Amino acid sequence: MENKKTVLFICAQFFGYEVAIKTALLENGLDVDYFDERSANNSLMKAMLRVKKSLVKRTIAKYYESITEKIKNKKYDYFLLVKGEVVPEDFILKFKSLNPNAKLIYYTYDSIRNNPANSTFILNHFDSCYSFDFEDVKLDSRWKLKHLFYTKEFIADFVSDRKYDISFVGTMHSNRFSVMKRLFEKFNNTFVFYYMPAKWFFYLEKLTKKEFKPIKITDVSFDKMSKKQVADVFKASKSVLDVQRFGQTGLTMRTFEVLASGAKLVTSNKHIKDVEFYNSNNIIVINDLNDDQELFEIVGKVKQSTDAVLKTNKDFEKYYINNWITEFFN
User: Fold this and answer.
1) Which of 2, 137, 227, 306 has its CA 20 to 30 A from that of 206?
2) Are residues 37 and 17 in contact, defined by beta-carbon separation less than 8 angstroms?
3) Which residues lie across from 105 on neighbouring strands?
4) β-strands 103-108, 78-82: how paired?
């Protein structure tokens, strides 16, 4: 019997998608050892990693020393790193010395501007580097464009009862609130869920960012929805709004989840017109929400029948996570 290929998989926790990736690796016949990229996942640690990583440098070093101890006696065929905002360079070098024949694969669902230092040394040490960001891949020929994916929870057969005209589920950031408010007031039946990781972070944002001034604490939740709950909302929606973060050009995870669920996608990301599965019947691109005529047109498109939406382009199936993962190992 042929031995399974071994994978060291390091990825930050992000709404359970790290579990979905690990499951897809296992279902593709790989032997997987998974470690969280972060030593802790509380909101304070996440903020420090973004703002002042040097304050937790010793904690990070000790954490990766403990990972090295756990993996040093096992040989790996692959090292799959996703996100890469924390992993120190000396850990990568140590892994390579222990596994000189391993292939190192990197994927990021964030823009380089949010992780400039790590992105640079990762490019120098990894065999294959992928980004979801259209603009970032133009910066260096070593980057390859790879969009995100959807998981099985979101796959829908025909759903007759789509009670929401439009819905939104996501983290509160940038101009999402103002975009949503202006559009959603045009509909009768809507669903809105805004998530923030902690109350202190909510108040900090209100103090420091003008776009948060009109947002009340009752507008947000500090508890996440489960993936199944999100999928159920999308399957009950005629359309779903998606607004990407400022400075990012990549297609969000919501893009793929919404289309898999059979809902129409209303998105602020104009780059979606460049992808092979773009279809104006089920993807509505926002140009200017301050334009009343455009708002009127969006409302009309959303209210059209969703019957034709469900069976999207055949090319879309490659974004199902079990198919999506295979490119890394070809």
Assistant:
1) 227
2) no
3) 80, 128
4) parallel
- Given strand 6-11, what is the order of strands in its sheet? 31-36, 6-11, 78-82, 103-108, 128-131, 143-145
* 110 and 204 fall within a common domain: no
User: CATH number of the domain that 200 lies in?
Assistant: 3.40.50.2000
Strand order in the sheet with 283-285: 190-195, 166-171, 239-242, 264-267, 283-285
pLDDT band at 52 (very low <50, low <70, confident <90, very high): low
Q: What is the pLDDT of residue 1?
A: 39
The answer to the question of residue 330 being in a domain is no
Predicted TM-score of the model (pTM)? 0.89
Q: Do 158 and 288 have their domain in common?
A: yes
Q: With contact defined as beta carbons under 8 Å apart, do 236 and 212 qualify?
A: no
User: Which residue is associated with the tokens 């969280």?
Assistant: 36
* 161 and 304 housed in the same domain: yes
The DSSP 8-state label assigned to residue 28 in this structure reads: T
pLDDT above 70: residue 19: yes
What average pLDDT is seen over the chain?
Answer: 88
Higher-scoring residue by pLDDT: 285, 243 = 285
| 87-92: long-range pairs with CB below 8 Å, 24+ | 87/10, 87/37, 87/118, 87/122, 88/60, 88/61, 88/64, 89/121, 89/125, 90/64, 91/64, 91/67, 92/121, 92/122, 92/125
Residues 123 and 189 in one domain: no
